[in-house]
Amino acid sequence: MTFVYNNDSQVMNKNRLSFWQIWNMSFGFLGIQFGFALQNANVSRIFETLGANIDEIPILWIAAPVTGLIIQPIIGHMSDRTWNRLGRRRPYFLVGAILASLAIIIMPNSPALWVAAGMLWIMDASINVSMEPFRAFVGDMLPSEQRTTGFSMQSFFIGTGAIIASALPYMMTNWLGISNVAAEGTIPDSVKYSFYIGGLVFFLAVLWTVLTTKEYSPEELEKFSKAEIKDTAKAHTGQQEELLSHGKFINNGIVWAISGAVLFILFYVLNFLDYGLGVFSGGIFLFGALQLFVGLLTKQKKTEGGLVVVINDLYKMPNTMKQLALVQFFSWFALFAMWIYTTPAVTRHIYLTTDPTSPEFNKGADWVGVLMAVYNGFAAVTAFLLPVLARYTSRKTVHSISLIIGGLSLASFYIIKDPNLLIISELGIGLAWASILAMPYAILAGSLPSNKMGVYMGIFNFFIVIPQITAAAVLGLIVKNVFDNNAIYALLIGGISMFIAALLVIFVNDVDETKSVK
């Protein structure tokens, strides 16, 4: 590699990478999304097949976001400080791929519901080990003017992988004649074989990136950091490297812990307490307890551990990241509602059945896989269009319009009765999905210091995970008690949530675009 030096001999700027270099460094996301798409399109089906009730599905899904909440900032912090023969991020790509591939293969062979829930936990943890460093990888490898392209390339591979993975059970049944119906409590062969293929693709795609992409050394990244520090200084005004005081951590910890305990007691007294709300209130209490622990460590000057760094950085994140956090919350609340409720919504609202052993249910469940493939496919197509539109308008404009269209499309499930017409709805969801996977990260990367790219990308995942935990906690309660277990209303709520996200985009400060205007 060659580098462009500025006037300071100790400072250098990153060169623009070619199309194929960006292709290779992003290719692993094809495998990562293979795993996620199989999970999103089929896990609710597996849970119902193994005996889960409709109101139990959200809490069974909660393993996935909770795992991401724990794993991603830890892996981000560790990868910021790693350097070995494989590099900085690539060791985590590879280890995560191996573990995730094994978990994906095991998942459809779960003999009982509790085993499937446990395998979801393991599978999602392993996928997160691979996925989180890929986000920081774009910040490491690309100059600011190419980051929108880099994240859009990831969106392309996410869409491409999900097209195939989501439709695999349908293709197995309709193209290869493999059965999509099985005895009660048994996963159909079409689903099993799809997961086997997915495990292999996951590993090979990530391995391609590991073998074809060379990372910058820590010394090179330090020089890049000096070149970027002036550009990001304004984004970090008032942000200092020193830790918050131990008293600040302790006071905040007390407030959060008491809030969690009060909510738990309130839900119990009102007879609302279930697993979802228990996890929700317990999570608030645990966050408070973690801050108390960090406060004690800070008081004792034991501040080198990853937990202290992550919690401190959470409080000192840039303003742009705080603004994007609200956008992400409502965007991902909508997405999680879609992932966990599309199968029961479509099978009941359109195919008029709730019996997972019936041919109509499995026909509807297969069609949901096709719908998931459609929105991911359209996301792959539009991934390269979004950077062009952003150059002529702005990243904020593109993201806001995409979310509005996505919200309308998600809400349209309520009025559509012909399953074929849902393909039109999925096109709008695909546009929103492509934008969600690219625009927030492109906006965020310009506001982050390069030496904390990994940990902040991990912390940013909080605002993907927290809405999913919230959705898992409250949607089951709402659907059961307000809408008589009719899952179609969860999709309508998701559409409204996406509208709110579109409105909040207006208030985000895009640091890179602010600099370009000046």
Largest sheet: 2 strands, antiparallel
Query: What is the CATH topology assignment of the largest domain?
Result: Growth Hormone, Chain: A
CATH class of the largest domain: Mainly Alpha
Instruction: State the helicity in percent bands.
Output: over 70%
Major β-sheet strand ordering? 1-2
Alpha-carbon Rg, integer = 22 Å
What number of domains?
Answer: 2
Return the CATH architecture of the largest domain: Up-down Bundle
Let me know the number of strands.
Answer: 2
Shape: globular
CATH superfamily of the largest domain: MFS general substrate transporter like domains
Through-space gap between termini: 31 Å
| Proportion of beta-strand residues | under 5%
Series of secondary-structure elements, N-terminal to C-terminal: EEHHHHHHHHHHHHHHHHHHHHH
Tags for this entry?
mainly alpha; 1% strand; 2 domains; Growth Hormone, Chain: A; disordered N terminus; single chain; two-stranded antiparallel ribbon
Question: What can you see in these coordinates?
Answer:
The chain has 2 domains: 367 residues, Up-down Bundle (Growth Hormone, Chain: A); 57 residues. It contains 21 helices and 2 strands. It has a two-stranded antiparallel ribbon. A hairpin with a 6-residue loop joins strand 1 and strand 2. Helix 7 packs antiparallel against helix 14.
SSE layout and pairing:
Blueprint: E1 4-5, E2 12-13, H1 19-26, H2 28-49, H3 57-61, H4 63-80, H5 90-106, H6 113-141, H7 147-174, H8 189-212, H9 218-233, H10 246-269, H11 275-299, H12 306-315, H13 319-349, H14 359-382, H15 385-392, H16 395-411, H17 422-445, H18 453-460, H19 462-481, H20 488-505, H21 511-517
Antiparallel strand pairs: 1-2
